[in-house]
Amino acid sequence: MEDGPDKQKRVEEPGDEGIHPERRVEPREERRVYLGCLGREALQMLSAAAGLLLLLAVVAVPAVLLASTSGSSDLLPSFPTGGDMLDYLVQTGDISQADGILATWYHRANNKSQMNQALASEVMVLEADVTLGGFGTPGQEPLPIMAHPPDTHSDNTLDQWLDAVLRSRKGIKLDFKSLAAVAPSLALLSGRNRSGGVNRPVWINADVLTGPNVPAYFPVVNGTRFLQLIQEGFPDVTVSPGWKVGYAPPLFTESYDRPMVENMYDLIRDVPQKVTFPVHALLVRDGWQHISWLLSKSPRFSLTLWQGGKHPNVTDLLFVRDNSHPARVYYDIYEPTLSAFKQAARTPGRQRQFYPGGGLVEYFYPPHGTEAGFLSSDADGGSLDVRWFAVPDRASLVARLSEGGGGRGMLVVRVGSSPDQPGVPLVEGSGNATEPLALEDVLGLVQSARGTWGLYLQVQGADLLEGSLRLLSSAYAREQLYRPVWVAMEISPRGSNTQGLASAQDFASAVDRLFPHVTLVLRDGGAPPRTPPCLRGAAQRVAVHLRAELLPGGGEELDGLLARVDGCDLVVEGAKGRGSAGGGDDDDEAASALKALVARREGSGDTRLYQII
């Protein structure tokens, strides 16, 4: 976008024709009066003045409008440098709504030629690299310049770069490959901001942790010092702390793991600014269970997907979009992939690629809509509004899946086996039927059905767990498991070795090893229920399944229960509640306990309470 045209063009060039009245002498008694008080000469002068003002408006108004839409910063309203980038782009009119897919980026707008090309383009945000002049050489000087390593010299200083960019309305992202340039650059920005000259979001980026496929000895920017300099020098920014990442298929393709995101959260958790985490677009899907955990830790957090030389798969980009809020993910992706991604995202009726380990409320009652039109418009749904249906046999499953309008809810499947097919996961009890219903058949029937269905598998024995997880893994690899999946085991009491029951540690280990993309559900028969220590740091969501009649009635006892299962979803089975017709005192007590539990659960972050009647 270019600067607007000269606003003074032709505003002082109206025609003079007809301004001077013809001078005629008439008898005084015949002089005409207009508008009750004006003579002919006065009326002509007034008309000429009005015409001049109209001409000025005709010339000036289009010039102002053109200037305001051509990228000039002259008429930009005030905007904080630490404000949201999407809010800014909506305010400038560059995008119609706060959706990261609409923002566009220009990379390495460093030297004057690159910078001018970026400024003349339609992109909305400029990314540029800052270092010190002569960095790492005997001639190093404390002057921030625009250059990407290994370059140590440039025809463009940061000061000159800001002079040019701030005459546009483009957003700013500054990338630092070393700590030395951070403080003097922030001082420059702070000075500009005090004079009101920045007036747009500013992102400050650096790779502060070792990431996937990079040896530990590779240098990164000291994250603690980086954040400290920001707080001291210019805190009114968005912080963009990233990982140093490698990607070299077919050998070096590992994704982000749990320690990487936990280390990042430990580093960033107390900063007051908005934070956007740059993640490699080719690695984000395989590490989504960890990346999504990090994203969920604060509403201030967002992701910025970036690519290297190899273009990401459009399907992977759709997966991220389908499992996140549109305003919390930016896509710094090159053409033609970006256009193909946008077109695919707008395809009506496409299947939503929901992450099987995601939350139920997000699946059944997503809080946002997209171009695809596959998301529910019912934003009022809550955890207690999720419906649960038992699956005893093939006939009942087929009938449920054939409901008019497609149907929606969680299908509760008790996974057992039969003497005729030992070790084969079947719907419990169906082995005695003429046509036993295998878990593999359940997955196929649900995949081919219309509607919005999730799966809750209650595995009846450690010997069936591995077979069930392998079936899930196979379906997911074939892209046939885009729905929430819960896997439950009755865990052996602490300190015991009950025949056929797994320990919590064995349960979690099997899930991590065979198919980690699920919600773990504990059916602990012990009293009181407690989340085992081995699951408090699990990479998956964890839920605890309780019987309503075992819920404590007193407030202090309920608080104790919540403390013991802190961080977990709760599944309460048996209480009618919510105005349902009860059958007796036990139902009333269970419903009251459930109501009290709901009240205490409100405001507990992303944890949920579900009810199975």
Number of domain modules: 2
- The CATH C-level name of the largest domain is Alpha Beta
Report the span from N to C terminus: 60 Å
* Alpha-beta classification: alpha/beta
What is the CATH fold-level name of the largest domain? TIM Barrel
As a percent range, the share of strand residues is 15-25%
Alpha-carbon Rg, integer = 33 Å
CATH architectural designation of the largest domain: Alpha-Beta Barrel
| Shape call | elongated
Count of DSSP H/I helices: 18
Descriptive report:
The chain is α/β, with parallel strands linked by helices. The protein has two domains: about 270 residues, Phosphatidylinositol (PI) phosphodiesterase (TIM Barrel, Alpha-Beta Barrel), CATH 3.20.20.190; about 230 residues, TIM Barrel. Helix 8 links the parallel strand 7 and strand 8. Strands 10, 11, 12, 13, 14, 15, 16, 17 and 18 form a nine-stranded mixed sheet that branches. Strands 1, 2, 3, 4, 5 and 6 form a six-stranded mixed sheet that branches. It has a three-stranded parallel sheet with strand order 7-8-9, with no helix packed on it. About 30% of the residues lie in helices and about 15% in strands. Helix 7 runs parallel beside helix 8 and helix 17 crosses helix 18. The N terminus is likely disordered. The longest helix is centred in the first third of the chain and has 30 residues. The protein is elongated, with a radius of gyration of 33 Å.
